[in-house]
Each structure stands twice: as structure tokens, then as C-alpha cells.
Specification:
Elements (H helix, E strand, L loop, with lengths): L13 E5 L3 H12 L3 E5 L5 H8 L4 E3 L13 E4 L4 H14 L2 E4 L12 E5 L2 E5 L6 H14 L2 H19 L7 H10 L2 H6 L3 H12 L5 H6 L2
Parallel strand pairs: 1-2, 1-4, 2-3, 4-5
Antiparallel strand pairs: 6-7
């Protein structure tokens, strides 16, 4: 196995995207969704990126890439169609020991980006180790049909329950059987069916009368 699977925390991290085209726009959108501080370097960008810059969501530097641009960067993504430039970004990132991804060129990356689906806090990633991105996207589309928004709602509720239990001085090791009972009791299925009465009944049965679905979702 070549790649070590990991979920990377880029919240409030400085991330650089070189290239302002369609691919660069996709990379920027994902980084912003994960809370990164994004700088884009490109003489020209898509209308979407231009609007983000005008709204101060990103920093757009309207010039060519320089090796020194990596000095304060946690992660860099190369999204250009200039192969010499892509190789230079990779070389600079390797020298500076930065995380580096060059779009569609796994040999110039020290990490690759999987296809993924996201429902709230649930993320399911699919990787083919760069062998077939098209097949990874095919699998992602299949998973999107299987895992709907109820999974995100389920995790939000479970997180709220966990926080409430911790405030009540429950020992963390005591939580596992309670959560297993909620899962085995069909909590996910009740959320999918919008069965609030059934959800409350299950919460009260397993956790007690102070655990009410609507209240938990409002105070998460």
C-alpha cells in the first residue's frame, strides 16, 4: 500500500493554489469548505474565483508563481496546464517540505485527493491510488445514492448526545454500549423516516427523559 490514509485538518491554515482555471476553482472551493485560508496565484481566474476574491473569501495574486510563495504555506496545489511549472512547484515543495498535490499528476504529489461524498460530518472517501480517477468518481456516485442526508443528521444527534453525557460526568468508556443500543434500536432508520415520536421514545428508553431529539439538535 503506497498511500497512508489520513484526514487532514486545514482549518485556519494557509493554503496555496497555483492556477485559476476550472480545476483550480474546484480545489479552492473544497479548501474553503474545510476552513482553510486560501491564496490563488494566477494572471487570470474563473469568474467564480474572481467573485470570491472580491468578497474577500480568498486572496488572489495576479502574477506568476514564485518559489518564495511557499515560505508561509502549509499546503500547495498545482492546478495549471504548464508541465514545467508543475514540476517546479513540486520541486520547491519537496525542498521546503510542504504538502503538495499537482492535479492529475500523482508522481508529482506527496498526497493525492480521493473522490468523496459528504453528509454533514460523515465523509466517505474513495481512492484508486491515482490509477483510475474515473472509477473512483463512479464509486462515489454509487455511494451518494446509498448514503443520504439522514447520516449527517444521525451524526449530529450522536455528537450532541455524547456532549450531554460528558457534561453529566459519565465515564467515556460507558458510552459505547449506549451508542450501540441506539444504533441497534434503529435510530438511523427513524431519522430517515422523520419519525420524531419514535426517536424520542428510543432516546428516553435508553438514555432517560432528559434526552429530547429537538432539544439536542438545537443545542448541539
Amino acid at each position: 500500500m503506497r498511500y497512508y490514509p489520513v484526514n487532514l485538518d486545514v482549518q485556519n491554515r494557509s493554503c496555496l493554489v497555483v492556477g485559476g482555471g476550472r480545476v483550480g476553482t474546484r480545489k479552492v472551493t473544497t479548501l474553503l469548505a474545510c476552513g482553510a485560508h486560501v491564496t490563488v496565484i494566477s494572471p487570470a481566474v474563473t469568474p467564480e474565483l474572481e467573485a470570491m476574491a472580491e468578497q474577500k473569501q480568498i486572496i488572489w495574486l495576479t502574477r506568476d508563481y514564485r518559489s518564495s510563495d511557499l515560505d508561509q504555506t502549509f499546503l500547495v496545489i498545482g492546478a495549471t496546464d504548464d508541465q514545467a511549472l508543475n514540476r517546479q512547484i513540486h520541486k520547491d515543495a519537496d525542498k521546503a517540505q510542504r504538502l503538495c498535490n499537482i492535479a492529475d499528476q500523482p508522481d508529482l504529489c506527496n498526497f493525492i485527493l480521493p473522490a468523496f461524498i459528504r453528509q454533514g460530518d460523515l465523509m466517505i472517501a474513495v481512492s484508486t491510488a491515482g490509477k483510475s480517477p474515473a472509477f473512483a468518481k463512479h464509486l462515489r456516485r454509487q455511494l451518494e445514492k446509498q448514503y443520504g442526508p439522514e447520516y449527517g443528521q444521525f451524526l449530529t444527534l450522536m455528537g450532541a448526545i455524547r456532549k450531554k453525557l460528558l457534561r453529566q460526568a459519565h465515564a467515556p468508556e460507558a458510552h459505547k454500549p449506549l451508542f450501540e443500543q441506539l444504533i441497534d434500536g434503529g435510530l438511523l432508520e427513524k431519522i430517515k423516516a422523520h419519525d420524531q415520536h419514535g426517536i424520542d421514545g428510543l432516546l428516553v428508553q435508553i438514555l432517560g427523559p432528559e434526552f429530547i431529539y429537538r432539544e439536542l439538535m438545537e443545542t448541539r
